From TrEMBL, chains A, B:
This is NUDIX hydrolase. Keywords: Hydrolase. InterPro entries: NUDIX_hydrolase-like_dom_sf, NUDIX_hydrolase_dom, WH-like_DNA-bd_sf, WH_DNA-bd_sf, WHD_NrtR. One of its GO terms (molecular function) is hydrolase activity. Pfam families: NUDIX, WHD_NrtR. Gene3D superfamilies: Nucleoside Triphosphate Pyrophosphohydrolase, Winged helix-like DNA-binding domain superfamily/Winged helix DNA-binding domain. PROSITE patterns: NUDIX.
Length: 229, 229
DNA sequence: ATAGTTAGCGTATTTTTTACGCTAACTATT
DNA sequence: AATAGTTAGCGTAAAAAATACGCTAACTAT
């Protein structure tokens, strides 16, 4: 067993579920494939792994290529490997998922313009490969993770109101939360820092703006703190 | 992009962290490698993926080969892929972890006798490849999972006392729990079913024997129940 | 000036978690 | 047969966390 080539080698792609939140709904970025197989169908962005890059670097490369921005949150999701998931042969997919703020980038223009689009997670098309499975897994993971890790912040602008944060969590978790208790919980958590500024210009009382206090969060985690919605 | 062979293909192994609990401590099953690289070092059991089997089937094959028994709990852990993790070339490892009851099998005799052994998770040797990382990830996952899914039952005999269950959780989570509150919580959970029998023969009051009520657990999960230690 | 709206604070109630006392039931010893 | 030693099982009080919801403040639009 000294030589690797004695064993059959599968192909390996890295695919990346990219979540974005526009203030109203949670969406994922999909690509309309030009090539066979599944030409004309929507798929999760992905590509073949380079032999000299780490899995995470590969996911980051795919993300940056498609969105032009780096994600603050990029995490391995699952490796999908059913023998028949790609008609060309045995292809494993190491899937990642990322959270980005779609306000910070524009879908790249030019030849890609019609080939990339956001789809709300409630209105997904039929996808190529086993990507519907991948997306389902990603949404479940995001929901589970959101309840015990403050990952939602990656999806918002650096400064946000508590109501915006609550809307986001209600959207991710698909639940209704009490406005006042949510406010209290966030204040007590110690991981949001008031900026002293307000958001004026809307037709009601101007809400205070906060930012995520990452240093404080890391401190709290070290001393055994567990975030909880 | 119609042909897979245009892209370089890594080798892929499936490696399996096998957890066992003997009533006193939580251990993992390790293999002493005979071949290079890392000959003479302890490693997690694993092998190259066959091109016509699913990842899970491959993990199950490895598990069955090494222990002779099937696991009730087998779950994908993470895919490890640092470019230099195997000196022979690019090798990805899709890692799984399994929970088994070591009382139900004996380490296979014969040529394997000195090559397979249980190591308590607190006394791990230095491992070949990046298997120390794999094990660290597996232990963290087991601890996290144990608090919100009743996976501990896989490690015990079908009939167990509440104290045995508590000892196991204390061992997995590395905490001390109050005996009376733990008892109360398990009774209230509805997922342990009294057998009506007691374990006699020990030098104190005979404790009642319970079994895991998987059907009831599945019912509860369907209606939104969340297990919680 | 006033109406409409969401923000922010507070409080009472319910539920869950924690701490811990007491008796029961078994075995081993005398 | 009585008694001591041990863990099992049940109960209760106190503390903490989650929930429900009222009230006033501060902004914009008319």
């Amino acid at each position: 067993m000294h030589t690797l080539s004695a064993y059959p080698q599968p192909s390996v792609t890295v695919d990346c579920v990219i979540f974005g939140y526009d203030g109203k709904q949670l969406s994922v970025l999909l690509l309309n494939r030009k090539e066979e197989p599944y030409a004309g169908m929507w798929t999760i962005p992905g590509g073949f792994l380079y032999l000299d890059e780490t899995l995470e670097a590969s996911a980051d490369r795919i993300l940056t290529t498609k969105t032009g921005i780096a994600s603050l949150f990029l995490e391995q999701l699952f490796t999908f490997g059913k023998p028949d998931r790609d008609p060309r042969g045995r292809v494993l997919s190491v899937a990642y998922y990322a959270l980005i703020n779609p306000e910070r980038f524009e879908l790249s223009a030019g030849n890609m313009a019609n080939d990339v689009n956001w789809f709300p997670i409630g209105q997904l098309p039929e996808l190529g490969f086993d990507h519907n499975d991948v997306l389902k897994t990603a949404i479940q993971r995001l929901q589970a993770k959101a309840t015990y890790q403050p990952i939602g912040f990656e999806l918002l602008n650096p400064q946000f109101t508590i109501s915006e944060l609550q809307d986001l969590y209600e959207c991710i978790l698909d639940v209704k939360l009490d406005r006042r208790n949510f406010h209290k919980k966030m204040m007590a958590s110690g991981i949001v820092r008031p900026t002293g500024q307000k958001r004026l210009g809307e037709k009601n009382r101007a809400p205070e703006l906060f930012e995520f206090d990452r240093e404080q969060y890391n401190e709290l985690v070290k001393s055994g703190f567990q975030f909880k919605i």
